[in-house]
Specification:
5 strands; alpha+beta; globular; OB fold (Dihydrolipoamide Acetyltransferase, E2P)
Length: about 150
């Protein structure tokens, strides 16, 4: 269907991230994975994060757009791969994963998928924090259960 953009996820290794300046002075980031696929973004925060994760396992979210005979692949998000996330301090990883989950669930926790007005930061934090703590506890309980199974 023309104009339809489907988000796709993949777990891969980010081999290289290059930058190019466009004729309008913007920076285009081109990330290449271990299988030679290329993903483009003009969003600085995504491009810089990709640069920090260069050479590591990553989980990418992207979408494709057909323009004539060319297919453009746009990078929408880049995160450490699940295996990469678990190599650091376990407590920090649980809290980070829990906060990511809480932030992604924020529209539903607030009560609207498309908020009509800005929610004050303190109110948002008060709604997200209990959810984040429950998610972190659930992750920790799951890890403890897996450790028991391994013994």
């Amino acid at each position: 269907m023309p104009g339809y953009q489907r988000t796709v996820e993949t777990v891969t290794t980010l081999q290289q991230v290059r930058t190019f300046e466009t004729s309008r002075g913007n920076v285009r980031y081109v990330a290449r994975d271990s299988e030679g696929r290329e993903y483009t973004t003009f969003r600085e925060e995504i491009g810089e994060r990709a640069q920090r994760l260069e050479g590591k396992g990553v989980r990418l979210e992207y979408h494709e757009t057909q323009r004539g005979r060319y297919t453009n692949v746009y990078l929408d998000r880049v995160d450490p791969a699940p295996a990469e996330m678990s190599t650091g301090d376990a407590d920090t990883d649980h809290r980070e994963a829990a906060w990511r989950t809480a932030v992604e669930a924020a529209p539903w926790l607030i009560g609207e998928s498309e908020p009509h007005e800005e929610v004050p930061p303190d109110e948002l934090y008060d709604k997200l924090r209990p959810f984040k703590e429950r998610v972190a506890a659930d992750i920790e309980a799951g890890d403890a259960q897996h450790e028991d199974e391994d013994d």
